[in-house]
C-alpha cells in the first residue's frame, strides 16, 4: 500500500496529475498544498518557512510526501539565484528534514537540466554537470534529499505537458498561440517531452514498488522542440506552418541551455514493465481524449482555471 500521501504543490501541472493518479488508485491523500493560488480543500504552504513545513507534516503525518513544487522559471533563476535558491534548494530541504523527523519518504522532482547536453543522452549513472543556475539548484537539492534519507526518490523529468489550471506548459502555449493565428519561434533543441498523466502513474507505481534513489521518468521519444510543436499543431488541427524553427544559439536568453538533454529510461522500465513511458503521439492522443473530462473538472476550479482557453 502507498500509505498516506501529501502533495506539496498540488495546484501545479505535476501536482494536480499526482492527485488524480493516487485518487484513482484509492490511495489516502492526507493533504495537498498550494503556494499562491487558493483552492478549496488545499492548504497554503511556503516551503521557505521551515517551522510551518514541520508543523503541517506533523499535523497530517503522511508516509509519502511528493514535492513537485518549485520555481521552474529558468531565466528567472539565472537572474535571481539567491531568491530562487531559497525555494528550490532551501525550501526543498526543509521538507526533506521534516520527512526524516517523521520517518516519511519524500519524492523530489528534478530535471534534465542537471546535465550540460554535451553527451546527448544520459543515464542515472552519469554525474550531474549543470550549466545554468536552475540545473545547479536541482542538482544540489538532489544531493540534499538523498543525504537526508536514502529511501527517498528522485525523479528527473523533462518538458511535462498536459491539461493545467493555468496554460503554462509548452503544449498549451502552442495550442493557444496557433489557435489565435500567432506564429511561434521554437528552438531546435532535443529532449523528451513527458505527458504528465503518464508521469503521475509511473510515480505512483514506483512508490508502490518501494523504489528509492534516482530514476529518469520522461517521455519515450527524443525529439526536437520545433518538431514537437508541429506535432502538437497537427494533433489539435492547427496550422503547423506557423511554427518557425530557430537555432538554439540565436535565442536571446540570459540562460545557457543544453542543446540535447535526453534522459534514458531503461532503469524505470526494468522495474515497471507494465507502465512504460509513452511517446509524443500517444501522449497527445491521450490528452485529447481527456479533454471533455478536464473541461468538466475545470468548471469546478477557482479563478486560475478561467485562464484555460476553450
State the main characteristics.
41% helix; seven-stranded parallel sheet; two-stranded parallel sheet; Rossmann fold; alpha/beta; 310 residues
Q: How would you characterize the overall build of this protein?
A:
This protein has a seven-stranded parallel β-sheet, sandwiched between helices. It has a two-stranded parallel ribbon with strand order 6-15. The chain has a single domain (4-307), classed as NAD(P)-binding Rossmann-like Domain (Rossmann fold), CATH 3.40.50.720. The protein is an alpha/beta fold. The N and C termini lie far apart (38 Å). It contains ten helices and 15 strands.
Compute the number of structural domains. Answer: 1
What is the N-to-C succession of helices and strands? Answer: EHEEHEHHEEHEEHEEEHEEHEEHH
What class would the helix/strand composition place it in? alpha/beta
Portion of residues in beta strands equals 15-25%
- Please bin the fraction of helical residues: 40-55%
Assembly context of the chains: single chain
The CATH homologous superfamily is termed NAD(P)-binding Rossmann-like Domain
Q: Strand arrangement, largest sheet?
A: 3-2-1-4-5-7-12
Q: From the 3D structure, determine the CATH topology.
A: Rossmann fold
Radius of gyration: 19 Å
Largest sheet features: 7 strands, parallel
How many separate helices? 10
Number of strands: 15
Shape assignment: globular
**Termini gap:** 38 Å
Amino acid at each position: 500500500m502507498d500509505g498516506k500521501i501529501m502533495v506539496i504543490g498540488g495546484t501545479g501541472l505535476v501536482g494536480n496529475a499526482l492527485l488524480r493518479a493516487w485518487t484513482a488508485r484509492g490511495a489516502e491523500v492526507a493533504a495537498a498544498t498550494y503556494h499562491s493560488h487558493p483552492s478549496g480543500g488545499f492548504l497554503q504552504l511556503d516551503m521557505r518557512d521551515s517551522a510551518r513545513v514541520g508543523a503541517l507534516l506533523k499535523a497530517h503525518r503522511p508516509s509519502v510526501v511528493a514535492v513537485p513544487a518549485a520555481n521552474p522559471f529558468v531565466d528567472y533563476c539565472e537572474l535571481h539565484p539567491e531568491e530562487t535558491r531559497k525555494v528550490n534548494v532551501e525550501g526543498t530541504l526543509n521538507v526533506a528534514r521534516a520527512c526524516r523527523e517523521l520517518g516519511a519518504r519524500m519524492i523530489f522532482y528534478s530535471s534534465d537540466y542537471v546535465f550540460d547536453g554535451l553527451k546527448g543522452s544520459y543515464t542515472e549513472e552519469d554525474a550531474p554537470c549543470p550549466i545554468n543556475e536552475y540545473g545547479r539548484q536541482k542538482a544540489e537539492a538532489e544531493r540534499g534529499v538523498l543525504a537526508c534519507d536514502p529511501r527517498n526518490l528522485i525523479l528527473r523529468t523533462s518538458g511535462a505537458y498536459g491539461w493545467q489550471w493555468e496554460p503554462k506548459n509548452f503544449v498549451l502555449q502552442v495550442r493557444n498561440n496557433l489557435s489565435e493565428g500567432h506564429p511561434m519561434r521554437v528552438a531546435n533543441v532535443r529532449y523528451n517531452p513527458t505527458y504528465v498523466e503518464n508521469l503521475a502513474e509511473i510515480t505512483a507505481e514506483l512508490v508502490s514498488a518501494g523504489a528509492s534513489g534516482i530514476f529518469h521518468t520522461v517521455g519515450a521519444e527524443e525529439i526536437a522542440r520545433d518538431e514537437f510543436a508541429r506535432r502538437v499543431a497537427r494533433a489539435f488541427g492547427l496550422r503547423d506552418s506557423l511554427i518557425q524553427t530557430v537555432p538554439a544559439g540565436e535565442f536571446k536568453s540570459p540562460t545557457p541551455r543544453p542543446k540535447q538533454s535526453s534522459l534514458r529510461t531503461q532503469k524505470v522500465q526494468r522495474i515497471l514493465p507494465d507502465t512504460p513511458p509513452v511517446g509524443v503521439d500517444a501522449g497527445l492522443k491521450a490528452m485529447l481524449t481527456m479533454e471533455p473530462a478536464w473541461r468538466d473538472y475545470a468548471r469546478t476550479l477557482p479563478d486560475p482555471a478561467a485562464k484555460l482557453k476553450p
